[in-house]
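B., you asked whether I could sanity-check this one before it goes into the benchmark set. Here's the sequence:
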Amino acid sequence: MSSISAPRAEFDPWSPAFVADPYPAYAALRAAGRVQWFEASGQWLVPHHADVSALLRDRRLGRTYLHRFTHEEFGRTPPPPEEEPFQTLNGHGLLDLEAPDHTRVRRLVSKAFTPRTVQRLEPTVRRLADELVAGLVADGGGDLIERVAEPLPVAVIAEMLGVPAADRPLLRPWSADICGMFELRPGPETVRRAVRASVEFSAYLRELVAQRRRSPGEDLISALIAVHDDGQHLSEQEMVSTCVLLLNAGHEATVNTAGNGWWTLFRHPGELARLRAAPEALLPSALEELMRYDTPLQMFERWVLDDVEIGGTVVPRGAELALLFGSANRDPARFAEPDRLDLGRRDNPHLTFGAGIHYCLGAPLARLELAATFSALLERAPGLRPAVEPEWSPGYVIRGLRKLLVEV
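And here's what the prediction gave me:
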């Protein structure tokens, strides 16, 4: 291995100080080279925008390797049997599928999850955002994440899936527990909670699918059941995994973009004043810049299916790459003054939603939810300000605040 090992003092995803501000460490990684071996996680770190963008599209890499190799052939240890419920749920979702299954499932899901589906939701999304913000304002403030950022995407996904209002409080805990498995080296308790959530969420959705088979409605589950293409259709497990992924991916990214975004704005009062002065004109580019500046998904992992060469280093088949989205989005080789927040930035090819075949299917819905949330807060809470400095959640891969207490 001809590479520079990444020193723990610079890149330490288990350190609260690093999680609170990983960007100086990213600058050091970019300066050190195009790829570096990180012994603590057994991964190759890729910090540059051009490399991350290209590798996301490189078919020599995969989110899984099981479409080509057994665990043993790939030199990997199979997951322990007790993880089976999570592995089955995760392994049948679009995020972890590769062609040809990914091609088939994405084509079928896209027929049900259409731009028109998202467009029809816009009045509902804006109404929900207005109601949530109105409640926050009426109380004089509170936790922006708990009161606005979290409940909105959960309510929207629940509305899409046709989940009854009484059952919706179940969704957020299930999502949080399952997403704990995407962090580096999840501990036994994280695994236990993820497995339990996988079992419970899957059982709940299977019953919902059965109900929709008996009595179809206008919801997404009914559409997923009905969709066919050249005689192909989604299996029940693929439907369940798709629904879970829509909640997990859409919810976690949207919540953390909203929380991280407002905390960024509070720390840049000049840019916040600029946004408040012209919200309609500036908000579209502002949301893209906030997603670039403090990325909610910091790392995206890919398996090396065939040897790849990066900057003179050959990364062998069987290795794992850690594509550092947060670093790529601050790369001075691609972004002018990347550490400066510029809400009017036009040339902004950030990688927050990924690229290639795994580009986020829910990106249009996420943008709609963020636009509704920020618009409502800018209009109804023009004096919104932080009450205390927030703490970061311990997760690094999915990075966000525990709370964001605000006053209006």
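One thing to flag: The chain has one domain: 16-407. Otherwise nothing jumped out at me.
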